[in-house]
Amino acid sequence: MSDIKKFLYVNRKPPYGTIYALESLEVVLIGAAFEQDVSLAFLDDGVFQLTRGQNTDAIGVKNFSPTFRALGDYEVTKLYVERESLDERGLTEGDLQEITYEDEDDDWEEKPSIRVVSRAEMAEIMADQDVVLSF
Amino acid sequence: MKIGVVVSEGPYTHQAADTAYQFVKAALDKGHEVPRVFFYHDGVNVSTRLSVPPQDERHIQKQWTALAQEHEIDLVVCIAAAQRRGLLDENEAKRQGKDAHNIAEGFRISGLGQLIEMGIQTDRLVTFGD
């Protein structure tokens, strides 16, 4: 394991209804130990994974959304959210959780992990990866 | 070229495990290497040795077991996904106090790290799923 590869985890599905979102996050958390260059992408219904104020009491499944806020501690600091997917669902960046990380290269300044990008920019981000895992 | 394969949907319900199988065979025929196939989400269900499809249908688990043995492919089943869905090898069954285990020959249960490692060590990662 000499070279560092660029890993992109693509999240396209809503947080509940299927297990893809939860099991994607499990891969991200385990994968963090491998010290690769990790990014996450949220598009289509995947943008719902990051919405604030999730409450799953009525459906009897675990609300795992707080885990996203811990990603900074795992040095997972690039969460790309597609603007068009937000727009199409009547969401804005303000509907998303605040997720931050402490930048070790900038005196541990707290910075936002979520970066809203256009569909065209998302395509470029994808093209730039070595490994794309789609969930 | 070294190709890593992910199967992320269950057998019979979904074509992913079949298409992945055909893909791996074709890749090997072309002289590529497929060192590992990783089963995740409902894909872990491919590994049960208790599947009994009608005799005139393909047996997906046996196809994979035979292919893996012939070409020394490492068939890895994600432990977290497997345990949720009731797939245990002998050790895990013992550890969890269960009275049965059901992982087929040629498959092994291991962690998600094996998926990441496969991504690092192969030239291409190909996912079969939705």
From TrEMBL, chain A:
**Where, by residue number, does the polypeptide cross the bilayer?**
none
The domain of life is: Bacteria
User: PANTHER family, alphabetically?
Assistant: PROTEIN TUSC (PTHR38780)
Which family does the entry's similarity section mention?
Belongs to the DsrF/TusC family.
The name of this protein is Sulfurtransferase complex subunit TusC
What organism does the UniProt record list as the source? Ruegeria aquimaris
From TrEMBL, chain B:
**Which N-terminal stretch is annotated as signal sequence?**
none
**Gene3D superfamilies, alphabetically?**
DsrEFH-like
**Keywords from the UniProt entry:** Cytoplasm, Transferase
Q: Where in the cell is it found?
A: Cytoplasm
Q: What is its main location?
A: cytoplasm
Q: Does the keyword Transferase apply?
A: yes
Q: Which InterPro entries match?
A: DsrEFH-like (IPR027396), Sulphur_relay_DsrE/F-like (IPR003787), Sulphur_relay_TusD/DsrE (IPR017463)
Cite the NCBIfam families for this sequence.
PRK00207.1, sulf_tusD_dsrE
Q: Which family does it belong to?
A: Belongs to the DsrE/TusD family.
UniProt-recorded name of the protein: Sulfurtransferase complex subunit TusD
State the organism of origin: Ruegeria marisflavi
